[in-house]
Amino acid sequence: MLQIKDLHANINGKEILKGLNLTVRPGEIHAIMGPNGAGKSTLSSVLTGNPVFDVTHGEVTFLGKNLLELAPEERANEGIFLSFQYPVEIPGVSMVNFMRTAINEQRKYRNLPPVSATDFLRLMREKKELVEMDNKLANRSVNEGFSGGEKKRNEIFQMAMLEPRLSILDETDSGLDIDALRIVANGVNKLKSPENASIIITHYQRLLEYIVPDFVHVLYDGRIVKSGDKTLALELENKGYDWIKQEVEGK
Amino acid sequence: MNDGRDASFDKFRALGFPTTQLENYKYTDLSQALSIDYGLNINRLNVPVNPYEVFTCDVPGIHSYLYFVVNDGFYPVNDNRNDTLPEGVIIGSLSEVSKLHPELVAKYYGKLSSTKNDGLVAFNGAFAQDGIFMYVPKNVQLDRPVQLVNIMRSDVDFMANSHNLIILEDGAKAQLLVCDHTVNDVHFVSNRVTEVFVAENASYEHYKLENTHNKTTNLSTLLIDQKDSSNVLANVITLHNGLTRNMIEIAVNGEHCDTTLAGMVIGDKNQQVDNFTSILHNKPNCTSRELFKYVLDDVSKGAFTGKLYVARDAQKTAAFQTNKNILLNRSAKMRTKPQLEIYADDVKCSHGATIGQLDESALFYMRQRGIPQKEARLLLMFAFTADVIEDIRIDALKDRMKLLVEKRLRGELSKCEGCVICQ
Ligand SMILES: Nc1ncnc2c1ncn2[C@@H]1O[C@H](COP(=O)(O)OP(=O)(O)O)[C@@H](O)[C@H]1O
Ligand SMILES: [Mg+2]
Prior knowledge:
The complex is a heterodimer of chains A (251) and B (423).
Chain A (H helix, E strand, L loop, with lengths): L1 E10 L2 E11 L4 E5 L6 H9 L5 E9 L2 E2 L5 H7 L1 E4 L6 E5 H15 L7 H14 L4 H4 L2 E2 L5 H15 L3 E5 L7 H14 L5 E5 L13 E6 L2 E6 L1 H10 L2 H9 L1
Parallel strand pairs in A: 3-10, 3-11, 6-9, 9-10
Antiparallel strand pairs in A: 1-2, 1-4, 4-5, 7-8, 11-12
Chain B lengths: L4 H11 L15 H4 L4 E2 L10 H4 L10 E6 L2 E2 L15 E4 H7 L1 H7 L10 H9 L4 E5 L9 E7 L5 E11 L4 E10 L5 E11 L4 E9 L4 E11 L4 E10 L2 E10 L5 E10 L4 E10 L5 E10 L4 E10 L7 E10 L5 E10 L5 E9 L3 H9 L4 H18 L4 H15 L14
Parallel strand pairs in B: 1-7, 2-6, 5-7, 6-8, 7-9, 8-10, 9-11, 10-12, 11-13, 12-14, 13-15, 14-16, 15-17, 16-18, 17-19, 18-20
Antiparallel strand pairs in B: 2-3, 4-5
Helix pairs in contact in B: 1-6, 4-5, 7-8, 8-9
The complex binds adenosine-5'-diphosphate (ADP) and magnesium ion (MG).
Adenosine-5'-diphosphate binds next to helix 1 of chain A.
């Protein structure tokens, strides 16, 4: 589904991703862990086409298409969704209008007619219930004045609305209490299917108790330096990252 | 109306047309616009157009009392929708009313404008012969908005001077919507002065919508006088124009007044808009809020001056001013100048001005949800202007403005195709 080969990316001339390789197949859940500043958010930005980053080398294919040639909105409509580490506040744009526009743009991309008002409202209600989102939030401007936890929940709500093929969750669990964490995990698990895949970027093993990954990768200094199964997450939680650093520098 | 003419003319001779040498006009160069040899309709030529036949208003549900000023003359009313005005209300031609009710007109006419040291206002005093007159007697509340459509229609380059006089007695209530509209593709200058007197406990709303073509120079002066416990809202929106200068001065001469002054500009190509505004708090215990927003593209130019004056005994004044601007293009220019003069010590005043671009992180966030860049930009621009539209208290007009602003931002209203309100 997703193949990343020898990916290098810069911001303001500074290289952040330094030859990253990763393959994700349909139905898989990949966890990416790693110390602060390793390049995890950079990877999610580059995959979704954030123009702030320059890709200097490498290839990324998604469902057979050259992802790097597509505009951010095309990537989204091909089925890539990012739950932002820091969701953006957009004063004056209501959640309802935002979601309706997004849904209809996705449908337009797939040559479908716009969603009917009743279907849209039903969909909104359904997905709000799924993530136990307060009705009030849906009537406000996008993320404006939302608490940290509410923003994260709103990301999962949007994910549920858009039903992506590949969802990338960038530290969606940070700052969530245990109840919110369960809700987020539940949202992700409900979307799990043999056709869909997820990349879960996290610092903590905690989330991985609810969402069981097929693979765990360690991203360090712009590269994936170690991969394993879910036991690797436990090991990282117990031992920290120093042994990884030593392993990498020892090589 | 003729009483002050000589004095105005003398004042104009001394002042001349304003130049950029003057502090108040430094952002707007009128020299080119005023260098054209314009016709002036001093002999009161009639214009062969009946606006009541040509224009039908389509603000759904606005049901206004509709009036026209064609060039510089009030067009005789022949719309039976206006028959149902509440008793005592007078709306009509200023020059006619000044013959029928000379004492009423004399009590107010020129009382605000003659105190202004301004070449354009003086020129208007010397040459304006007509305009709308509106009188709402004590405790009468108009059940529908009054709509005034200023139409510029001429086959040659033309300058129109008109003067509007609006009087609300104690406890009266009225809403006025002014639409500026041009018909022919010649150079127009309009120089319009509006004086508004809002007595105790009265409530007045003034909406101005400009959608003219780019050869139009629209010079407008709005002077409002507020007495105790009165309430004023002015909202000036420029959707399409050539060169516009709005001079707005609201003098709060009573206690416990509330004042809202809002405005929006959407400019592109070489359009220019200068809103030169003053709110003068002369009495204590009043509140005011001012909000202006500009979206400028191409080589358009915007200017905003927000003068906020709080007199020494205007204690407990709460006055807030905001001017926010988005430049969509490097060549667009915005000048903003808050000008606070506060002489009272027990007040709450604030001002803020920003000039920026669309928020790139918000744009990316929307694109990540599948919304194309163009649409995302539009949503952000529309969101940016939303609070000015919220400051419209006529629902039908508010809904219509949402639509017009969206059309304008989409570039579907790129030229004046007849007054958008009155197509
Ligand atoms: N906008 C930016 N400008 C400059 N440097 C940046 C920017 N964003 C991220 N970086 C740098 O890129 C590196 C990787 O950051 P990031 O991908 O956010 O790490 P992670 O998500 O793994 O904590 C860090 O050194 C960070 O300082
Ligand atoms: Mg990060």
